Records
---
Amino acid sequence: MLLQQVLQGLMEGVTLFLIASGLTLIFGVSRIVNFAHGSFYMLGAFLAYQLHSRVWPGTVGGFFLAIFLGALAVAALGVLFEHQVLRRVYHAEELMQLVITVGLVLIVEDAVRFVWGQNDVTVPLPDALLGAAVVGKTYFPFYQLAIVAVGMVVLAAMWLALRYTRAGIVLRAATDDRGMVALLGINQGTVFTSVFGVGSFLAGLAGGLSVAFESVNFLLDSRIIVAAFIVVVIGGLGNLYGALLGALAVGVVKALGLLWAPRLSMVLIFLVMAAVLMTRRLRGGVE
Amino acid sequence: MTPPERQTAASGRDDPRVRWFPVAAVALAAAIALLAGPPLVVFALIEVMVFALFATALNLVLSYSGMVSFGHAVYFGIAVYGMALTITRLGWPLWAGMLAGPVTSAVFALVFGAFCVQLTAIYAAMLTLACSEVTFAVIFQWFELTRGETGISGFVPPMLGLAPGVYGLIVLAVVSASILALWRIVYSPLGLTIRAVGQNPARAAALGHSRRTVQLIAFVISGFFSGVAGTLFGAFHGNVFPDYLGTLITVNGLVMVLLGGLYNFAAGIYGAVLFKILDNLLAHYFQYWQVAIGVILMGVILVSPRGIGGAIQWLARRLPGAQR
């Protein structure tokens, strides 16, 4: 039972990491606190629902292809939003940027209600993912293992890209000191747009994967964005590896909380965050 | 792309005088509407006034002290619980209960604020959210004390048992007095210190002002007046539910301030009026009215970053005979 909850927690942790990593990458480079990130996640989920019956329905490949295509569409939307709207407010104050993203949250939420209605939509899992691996007395459902595996693959790809590709180097440099990167003759607009696109892609991907275990409805955005911000804040804004630790911790705490104190699991997470913030302050890390 | 110099209200007009003529005109118009209007208008007006005070109190934190609060509904809703519980559990008289409301809020703001001002920016904002979520959960779960979801009612007759117009006048008086008090605070030496800390904590520190202490003071003042708004709201409906300190109230308050225009003292008033109009008109004819709010918010930032307040000031400066 315990191990099973831990796996459940890891699975949620992996999707949380995907959405939080996008959030933290975007903040690291462009200093935008993007509230619309949860909306991208929700769109990813709904697009996966829309597409799953079109591409090889019922197969594992089709299931993940639908999620991937949905995430690509979300990335395109993110690029459009960055290029047309956010770009105008990079010089404005933080609160103004925040308001812009909140505006997008409201628009997307109503658009989703308009297109897909108020009720939950469900995506049937392909048969191949319905079983479970049995170890002793513990059941590990295949779809949970698959999601954790996909998360690992994305994580590995991100790590390799950040470490070895030119784009990754530019991104890390821009997180450190974007003014310096501009002085080196690298087009800032391109960097900001691509980072926003990648971040939105990750959010869409996380949302698509969530159809396996979340109830997908128009309230998904506000549910997830709070959790994503908790993860990012625990890990430290702009810190990718911190986000990984934070996501796994939040996922597992939430799953174990569901086991022992179901109605308090979210409170538990907030308390963990508060404790992390206060201890980090004592070491002088958050100011 | 370097971060811009922080701009706040002080960078625009900084005139501490109350312009009594528009204030009196608005108050008079409201009073006439309260006494002569049909019940629906009176009810809408009472809610607008209550939320105008709540948003103005929130605006003190947002526009002047340099903090962001994602959990301000706590200080709105906990006041009603403070009032309800002192009346039902401790048997306090009505007037004492209504005083206990805002004081409860101030105490909560003091305790939570003391933690939140230890951090800055988004970290502090997330901590305000955590405080509000945890309080909400406690209120929701602690059935023996708060009766959870069922809420508490009957601790005061709706509208104190008065006619709607009369209760409306009381609300008008209390809200006007509170907003004028907030105005006085913003333009007092204390307010100047709050604005200094909000604009540039480092320079304020060089003058000997601790960011934490000053922000905590602003937070408690804001909490207190949020509690005044909450108490008026609770007495209006004669009941209290956990939702009074839920996310929706927080978000609506934020949207009102942003619509009204950050760094403008009257943002809460403009925002509450516009929000209620949009809420009432659009929600009736158009199910998807959030889109409208979203588009307006984006448009406001892109076209007139100072919101409606900024647009009104811009117009006022261009009217013939306006003082520069």
---
Amino acid sequence: MARASTTSDVFNAVADAHRREILDALITGEKPVGAIVNDLSMSQPQVSKHLRVLSEVGLVSCRAEGRRRLYRLEPAHLQPMHTWLAKYERAINERLDRMDDYLQDLQRRERMR
Amino acid sequence: MNGTRHGSATIGFPSDREVLVTRQFDAPAELVFDVLTKPEHVRMWFGAKELEVCEIDFRVGGKYHFVGFVMDGDTATCSFRGTYLEIERPVRLVGTWVFDGRPDAEAMETVELREEDGVTTMTDRLAFKDRATRDSMTWAAADGLHADEGGQVGLDRLEDYLTTLA
């Protein structure tokens, strides 16, 4: 399967540790680039580059306030990851639910003996 | 009553290379341990249908091999194998874990059982050699165990996002 580019795929966009740090920094609220740079050990050009990738996949949005540009997290765009985790959880739960039913049946048969 | 705990497994990613599944069962630890380790039991629940192969040589250094349909609706048979490394009935079981579709992605599996008031809590920890291997295997499992579609997916600290942003 061909790998999607970082700019079209949420999974690849968050595969980078620096971009995850930026998302973490935005969890507490909307911030200008300068505040993100202060929070993290990254240069301003680096932060700007990563913000561009995060904006392109929709994980971050940007609005102007006077001369500043404020960046905010758009958690709804993490939906593909929610969907992925739900699928994985379902696969594991199917097996453990079968094990649970089997254990209950064994114990019921034991009590009836 | 069957089904009261259905869907209650919790899945965590305690480190970069691990997956940790926790589940409670209304059964004594000895019985849970036997259901995890005796072939006549494992073959009945491990797969979506009764396993085609369920070989267990239950001793330290002994091997196991399970083949069957692992998920409902799955069309491919899946084969898992490994070697038991530590056996301490009914509290702890350690072994290697290999999915035959991805023999390079061997993991160390540690199962621990703790019984309290008739309820046994099972933790099942899979430790892969690195994050990329873990991510590709969990991705494959989510995708119906089509392992060759895995890879490339960074999911480090995903659970933090899910809990923080939910």
